[in-house]
Amino acid sequence: MEIRKALRPRPGASWASLACVAVLLTASNSSSSPAVSSATSTASTASTAATPAAASSTAAPASAAAPLSAPASTPGGTSTPTGADTFLAAAQDLAGTLLHEPACGGFGCALSGDSTTFLANMTWTTWSGTEAVGAGSYKINDCQPNCAAGRVYPVATVVTLSQPVKVCSASGTRWVWSQASFAFPDGLPQALQGQDAPQNPWTFSALITAAQQSCS
To answer: DSSP string covering 2-47, please?
Structure first.
């Protein structure tokens, strides 16, 4: 009888063992959960905290754009000719005297660089930024047999100065006439007709070149 009792299983002990294992598993799961939750919370907090910093490093303030530069201005003179700053260059020499509505009294104002043509006793009816119109005398040397021994003919004329070109200097911008056109109310003397007639219209080519070089 005692042998049969010893071989008999003990159900109470098995259930107790299972209950003990369940308790241990529950305790283990319960103790690990806060750690996982805490790690997840920490990662989320770090990600949230990093977001504003990243945004602030990439966003550029609207006022960072550089302001546009103001256009440079040219000191002295005007960008387009006016009657007040347009002149006749005596003898077509930009380094010489610049004449404004000259009366050209006496022998007159040299129109050519070789002193063979002059304007004299001028009265100007127009002097604007586009043209100057005046009446007077056009003195022309016929250069026969040469200019030193030639005869000077005073011819009644109406002259129109036009095509002002810009001249640049340290004192500012000026404009000078670069072309002259002539009308002769009384005609030309025989010595100044045909191939000996004065150039009309007359473009001051050397003056134009000098003016361009002064502003280059």
So the answer is: HHHHHHS--HHHHHHHHHHHHHHHHHHHHHHHHHHHHHHHHHHHHH
Question: Can you name the residues that pair with 140 across neighbouring β-strands?
Answer: 117, 153
CA atoms within 13 A on the CB side of 77: 21
| pTM for the full predicted model | 0.64
CA distances 30 to 40, 43, 44, 93, 115, Å, are 16, 21, 22, 108, 120
* % the chain with pLDDT above 90: 61
- What is the identity of the amino acid at 68? L
The per-residue pLDDT for 29 is 44
Residues 21-36 have pLDDT tens digits of 343 334 444 444 444 3
**Helices and strands, number each (H, E), in the chain:** 3, 10
d(CA 56, CA 206): 66
Q: How far is CA 39 from the centre of its chain?
A: 64
Domain regions of the chain by residue span: 2-45, 83-214
Q: Kindly give, in sequence order, each residue whose CB lies less than 8 Å from that of residue 123, ignoring residues fewer than 6 positions away.
A: 103, 134, 135, 136
